[in-house]
Automatic annotation (TrEMBL):
It is found in: Secreted. InterPro entries: Papain-like_cys_pep_sf (IPR038765), Pept_asp_AS (IPR025661), Peptidase_C1A (IPR013128), Peptidase_C1A_C (IPR000668), Somatomedin_B_dom (IPR001212). Belongs to the peptidase C1 family. It comes from the Eukaryota. It holds the Pfam family Peptidase_C1. GO terms for cellular component: extracellular region. Residues 1-18 form the signal peptide. This is Tubulointerstitial nephritis antigen isoform X1. The keyword Signal applies. Keywords: Disulfide bond, Glycoprotein, Secreted, Signal. Residues 58-110 form the SMB domain.
């Protein structure tokens, strides 16, 4: 009897031992080194294995310390999870406890122990200014664009035309002029400003080789301290137009100087403003309309073909193609040109063409420029535009190389043409005499001083005294 009992007991332990050995062997067969879910090996270098689906820590109980064999396949995350207390060590990003570990081992069904660190839930998308944007969202920041890629903003790095920090630096400094944040420039890069808001090609050899007219060799003292053309010839000097994002200052400055001189030389018989759009659309020989043009080409067209008034051929920004000429003409027996088509603006009856002679160059001497303006009217000037000029609001402009701005843009400049209408003198904060030119730009009357700007005189600031052009007109 006792012998049979001992035999049964021994058989039971033998069967249990075989089952346990087989189970461990099966586990060892399935062991393998698997990468963690972040693409690297386990932070603690443990082997990971694929096991059959089922429960987690409750099947084994809590395993204290470290037991690398106490792991399960966590299908919800497609990863291996552990049931030993060692799973709570390491950085929060590497915590890999099974989901029922806290309940089974610590008896906390809803909250985790305060000293246990858990992996934070990562949201997809990017944050900007306190707002959450989804993956692939595009955020516009002035002239730069940012796109949310893999939870990070990927942004372009353009130098913007309007830079608030530069405006603040100029306005808080002693530069002699003030800057402004112009809404029409917001969102544009500096390169877009150079390519769309200027448009005069560098002077050709034909202009630079012209012999300057020196005048009567008068001195600065022979002229009044202040002179402006609209006071000398009231009603005959035309206000600035707005070229907008059409790079055609070559056409705007030429037409405006010619119109002023037409009124002055005719003693007020013809006071029409001349059409820059006529030049942009019709002067196409080696000219590129709103993508740039040369001054000698513009003056040549004005001499040979003439221009109609701005009222006859206005600026069709939104619906008129710039490269289509709406005016044609023939030469009459008396040598004058006559338009053969009515005005593009059909409410304007007069399609008269106005012609001027080929231009002449004025000496760069300060007194010679003053003499020409006082005797014959405004002149055309070519200048170099730097990054800070776009922000000019008031005062006597002088480019300052240390006035902020990224280093790669602080030395850049592009050619622009403008109309000088007078001059003046101002005492600065240090009681020094500051001489200046009064100049009409072509960026509309909301820019600068009602469309005009003052710039340092007598020092060839921004090369503005290098090339001065004037003309006489036919009647």
């Amino acid at each position: 009897m006792w012998l049979k009992t001992w035999i049964l007991i021994l058989c039971h332990f033998a069967i249990v031992g075989c089952i346990k050995e087989k189970f461990v062997a099966g586990n060892n067969f399935l062991l393998k080194d698997s990468p963690a879910e972040d693409g690297s090996n386990s932070a603690r270098g443990r082997p990971e294995r694929a096991v059959s689906r089922g429960g987690y820590c409750r099947l084994r109980g809590c395993c204290p310390g470290r037991d690398d064999g106490c792991n399960f396949q966590y299908n919800a995350r497609n990863a291996i999870c552990y049931c030993d207390s060692f799973c709570t060590s390491g950085s929060p990003a590497s915590i890999d406890c099974c989901p029922d570990f806290w309940v089974t081992c610590f008896g906390h069904p809803t909250t985790q122990p305060a000293n246990i660190r858990t992996r934070p839930l990562q949201q997809e998308g990017c944050t900007k200014g306190g707002h959450r944007y989804g993956e692939g969202a595009i955020f516009k920041d002035n002239c730069n664009s940012c796109k949310c890629i893999n939870n990070h903003w990927m942004c372009s790095d353009e130098t913007c035309l309007v830079r608030p920090n530069l405006i603040n630096q100029i306005n808080s400094g002693s530069y002699g002029w003030k800057a402004s944040n112009y809404s029409q420039f917001w969102g544009m890069s500096l390169q877009e400003g150079f390519s769309q808001r200027l448009g005069t090609f560098p002077p050709s050899a034909a202009l630079l080789d012209m012999t300057p007219v020196a005048g009567n060799l008068m001195t600065e003292m022979d002229f009044p301290e202040h002179f402006v053309a609209w006071h000398e010839w009231p009603g005959w000097i035309h206000d600035p137009l707005d070229q907008r994002n059409c790079a055609a200052s070559w056409a705007f400055s030429t037409a405006s100087v010619a119109a002023d001189r037409m009124a002055i030389h005719s003693k007020g018989r013809f006071t029409d403003n001349l059409s820059p759009q006529n030049l942009i659309s019709c002067d196409t020989r080696n000219q590129y309309g709103c993508k740039g043009g040369s001054l000698n080409g513009a003056w040549s067209y004005l001499k040979n073909y003439g221009l109609v008034s701005h009222a006859c051929y206005p600026l069709f920004w939104s619906h008129h193609p710039h490269n289509t000429c709406a005016i044609s003409s023939i030469v009459e027996t008396d040598g004058e040109r006559r338009a053969t088509h009515p005005c593009p603006n059909n409410v304007e009856p007069s399609n008269r063409l106005y012609q001027c002679s080929f231009p002449y160059r004025i000496s760069s001497r300060e007194a010679s420029i003053m003499e020409e303006i006082k005797e014959n009217g405004p002149v055309q000037a070519v200048m170099q535009v730097h990054h800070d000029f776009f922000l000019y609001k008031s005062g006597i402009y002088k480019h300052r190389r240390n006035a902020g701005g990224p280093s790669q843009s602080s030395h850049q400049s592009k050619t622009h043409s403008v109309k000088i209408v007078g001059w003046g003198v101002l005492q600065d904060t240090e009681e020094k005499r500051q001489k200046y030119w009064i100049v009409a730009n072509s960026w509309g009357k909301t820019w600068g001083e009602n469309g005009y700007f003052r710039i340092l005189r007598g020092q060839n600031e921004c090369d503005i005294e290098n090339l001065i052009i004037a003309t006489k007109c036919h009647f």
